[in-house]
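Hello, quick one for you while I still have it in my head. My current little project is about how a certain protein chain folds up. You're getting the sequence in one-letter code plus the fold written as tokens. Would you mind checking whether the tokens look sensible for this chain? Here's the protein in full, and shout if anything looks odd to you:
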Amino acid sequence: MRNANITENFDFSQQQFQFIDQNGNSEWGTFKDSLRAPVHRWFTYPAGFSYKAVDHSLKKHRICRGMQVYDPFAGTGTTNLAAKCSGIDSCGVEAHPLIYQIACTKLDWEVDESEIARETERISETIDSKKNADIDVMPELVRKCYDESTLNELIVIRDLIGAIQSDQTRRFLELALINTLRQVSSVETGWPYIAPKKPLNKVPEQSAGTAFEAQAARMISDVLQIRRYSEGWRAIKSDIYHADARKTAIPDNSVDHVFTSPPYLNNYDYADRTRLEMYFMGLAKSWADITMDVRDKLMTSATTQVRGSGYDVSEDLRKDCPEVSAFLQASVEKLGELRLKKSGKKSYDRVVGGYFNDMYLVLKDVFRVMKPGRTAIFILGDSAPYGVHIPTDELIGKIALGIGFSQYDITVLRGRGGKWRNNPQRHNVALREAIVTIRK
């Protein structure tokens, strides 16, 4: 393999999501790190990684104040938030409208904590006198997730927040409410799946109003804490754009380091996973709204996104990366044949073709915005739809070479899929999570 170095170190303790490098060290952290850290923990998004991984990468590649970090799949802002805490400018792109807004809120530390506390207190004092919300207008999924009293209370809180004049305070408290939604549900709404027919074993300990008030107080405390240990934070630029990573407006040769984790090729529907939040906040009313406003704007990674007859490998990808294209086209054709034989008839062939067509465009744009001699880090997982192994990390590295990057290295972090070993429908291909380091 030209200009490639693969270091394998599998860690099968996947329940911990422990990232181990080739020396057995864990500088890359764990996903749980971000669930405990101030501000990072404001939204529990299942497609996350540790902020410590970003910190480690910034130090390893000597990224410092005056430089700029970029994340083309910003998500809830883990890369950008870690950069800001280190005094480093950053930018990011996020296509999901709700997740984009959450990232912007997490990066806005100029909020007036006194005003937020006053508005929170006003809302808490007003809830009881306004419990007359029309819950029937809510989508069915939302109605099934709460008892009538709790849903009524949540709607009242949402409407009181909506009347706040200050955009900053309103967005801050909207995020506090979004964080409250799954805490007070009477059914299983843990990430990533919502199971409205599966009641919780115990009733939520807090009312909606109490949980919201506690969440807002916790977030205020986090802002005060992160300001204290992030020296000079007011001068740091952290720009998140609601845009498409396949074609951005970020200037050429402006980025010193890229740290990102693209969607994995694992049929994970990012639009569907936030359906409860989007329905409740009025950002969507139906599956069709979710598809039009979110799903169709995201890069291809799930069978629920595909349209039409198929996604063959694009002409540009064929021209720049003939070896990769030949492998992908053969895989697409094999998956197309298997789809007709499988009971689920899932369109994995279309997903694989669409995924790499999209990643090719993302990598081209990353190449354009990066400065020469700089490095991009991609955290990736491979996949094996219908048992057909797609080595995503190696393919991404080879595509990078075809586009013009000078080299790539792969460091395997851990094994994946161990908990499905006893599933008779599951393939037996050993999967892994890896870091692909690409140099321009």
Remarks:
- The CA atoms of residues 274 and 438 lie 31 Å apart.
- The first strand starts at residue 4 and ends at 7.
- Residues 1-25 have pLDDT under 50 and may be disordered.
- The first helix runs from residue 31 to 36.
